[in-house]
Amino acid sequence: MTVDTRFVYDAATAVDPLGDAEREAEKATKHNRAKVGSGRPSSLLYTYGPGSIMDLPQFTIMPTGLDDWDRIWRRRDGIPQIRAPRLREVVGKLLRSRDVQLRPHPWQPKKISLSTEGNDLGVPARVFPQWLRCTGCDMLGTVSQFAYTNTHPFRADLACFEHAKCTGRSGNRTRKPVRRTAVPARYLLACVDGHLDEFPYDEWVHHWKPCPQAEFPALKMVDRTAGKGASAVIGCESCGARRGMNEAQGEAGKSKLPNCRGRHPHLDAFEPKGCRNEARLMLVGASNLWFPATQSIIVMPESSQEETGDLAARIRVALGEKLAKYADDLDTLRDVLDGKVDVSELSDEKLAQAVATALLPPESAQELDAWAKQWDPVDLLVPEWQYLLKDPLGLRHEDEVSGLTLSRRDRGPELRPEITRVLAVERLRKVNALVGFTRIDDMDRVGDLPQRLAPLTRAPYPAWTVATEDRGEGIYLQLDEAAVAAWETRIETTEIWRAQRDAHRRNFYRRFSETAQDVDPDTRLRPPRYWLIHTFAHVLIRELAMTCGYSAASLSERLYAWPESESREAAAGLLICTTASDSDGTLGGLVQLSEPDRLECVVSGALYRATRCSSDPICAMRTPQDPEDFLHGAACHCCVMASETSCERANRFLDRRFLVDLPGSGVGFFGRAD
Q1: Which of 336, 339, 438, 530 has its CA 20 to 30 A from that of 615?
Q2: Structure confidence by residue, pLDDT tens digits, 302-342
Q3: Where does the MrfA-like Zn-binding domain start and stop, copy by copy (predicted)?
Q4: Strands (E), 439-563
Q5: What is the pTM of this model?
Q6: pLDDT tens, 357-373?
Q7: CB–CB of 279/191 below 8 Å?
């Protein structure tokens, strides 16, 4: 495998647990099971992707970069791919890899419990952090100083590291050494450019000098108040030095920490020129340790241009440099592509068009830079909105390629007039792809994203990235654009909107990276119609969850809310859907609620509940004032806010006053709801 030289990397340390097992089997020696845990595809994409830290029952691990996943995939004759041409094109531009593939996680279900399907697959990971603490005697050491136990064939949760000769703490020592479980030492160093490193305990306790008594000092971590910040004390048993971890906390602690070394532990590599940033103290379980950068689409029927582009990419990958050789001989080209790309039912005209597209030169770095500077993630939503504007052809109109199945619903006589169209989305497919991750700040909180985005591979241009394919159902509602535009114009002159805009500016400047000072915060503020539709989606999710058969956490939103601009027409609509990556996600209970009489009850009930909150009047009157910088108004967990799995904006940009009239406020789009 070719490895990019921009990273300092030792190939001898490659993570290949199944390869280790194969080599041990050849020697006829017993080998512990390679798999130590499991996770759902969604969690491995949004919570525990490459570079994150995953909690297992006894220790923590870090899924490695996609380079190591290639060793897993190469054990198979064929590698599955997820078809989503529109998403693949955008991901390819973001990763600077024109022919990037979207692949699922390396997993295969078992036909029966004792079968071996999928045993040669899995997500490779390494133990991280590799400093462990004995729970019996507080000994602090690296993973090599502890014994690893993992012998039960059906209980991977019993895998653990143990201190084999623990004698207990002072004053409570045992006569005979016993085996005690070791747990991860919970301190790390991180920087805003996505680097992560072990905390240098031995250097810390000796104030960055060598121990005067031993070359390899014996360390202990005394931690009796877990959960109260950096409360541990590091002690050296060799020389008696002691130093508390609380010295590394806060602004004062930054000056006592070393500079970032530019380490990417998921790639087992360092930045060759180091890192210019200061390191920050981080706990293993911190919520801002890993933020995924993902892109997703609802797969719609493909246009002829998308079909041609996708076919051209597959032909280019299959033939490589030989493409130009066979470009003018379509008969020979078909023979060469046999078994690689199915072009048997393709006409010569379409095949020639695909070949011509495949031969086009790639975009230059300057062109990609210009595209990235102008590109907005909303661009992925525009084709979905444009397709949903069209009435489906009859009842249960199904597109064979995308699987999208739509049905037009009549408007009930009692449905609010502001809702102009209703579609039942009886089947849909959503594809989500990972393009990188950030630390310290979430992706949409970072202005200079290309610099802050941590890579998934050592190679500069990844050949593939991991993706998930979710299936489900949903309800689509479209609002009256003229009414929304008129309401939005009125809202932009109100004191409530000025207060929200000022709070967003304060939040932006306090949380954004130092190199994002040239970004106008107003360009990151969602327009009033987004607040309206976002709040409406949340109250609908709460109401739908009471009768549809899905929990509120299983329902998610897809918002189409942007004003008219030079590049796109205005949009005002929303899709409430349920998707699951490891099941069909189509019980039918959500679609049934799109029927006219039922939807009338859902909408009226949701708006009525939005007028009241158990935290009123505090919630109903909440408006951010200087120095407050929260990004919501009349919204709280008692009335509007939803789970993280449901909301695409982490419960930001919500305000019930924009939805319905509350006491003292008459700016609601739907007016009075009681």
Answers
A1: 530
A2: 888 888 888 888 889 888 888 888 888 888 888 888 888 88
A3: 536-640
A4: 464-479, 555-562
A5: 0.89
A6: 989 898 898 998 888 87
A7: yes
Burial class (CB in 10 A: 0-12, 13-18, 19+), 313: buried
> Which helix (H) or strand (E) element contains residue 385?
helix 382-388
Q: Alpha carbon of 119 to those of 35, 61, 238: distances in Å?
A: 9, 20, 46
pLDDT band of 446, cuts 50, 70, 90: very low
Domain segments of the chain as ranges: 297-409+423-469, 471-658
Report which residue type is found at 671.
G
At residue 168, the pLDDT reads: 87
pLDDT grade, residue 447 (50/70/90)? very low
Q: Can you tell me the distance from the alpha carbon of 393 to that of 407, in angstroms, rounded to the nearest whole number?
A: 8
Phi, psi angle pair for 452, to nearest 5°: -80, -15
Helices and strands, counts by H and E, the chain: 18, 25
**What is the Cα–Cα distance from 451 to 442, expressed in whole angstroms?**
13
CA–CA distance, 507 with 624 (Å, rounded to integer): 11
Pull the structure tokens for residue 360. 């086009």
What CA–CA distance (Å, rounded) separates 354 from 344? 14
Separation CA 138–CA 235 (nearest Å): 10
Closest CA to 268 of 2, 7, 56: 7
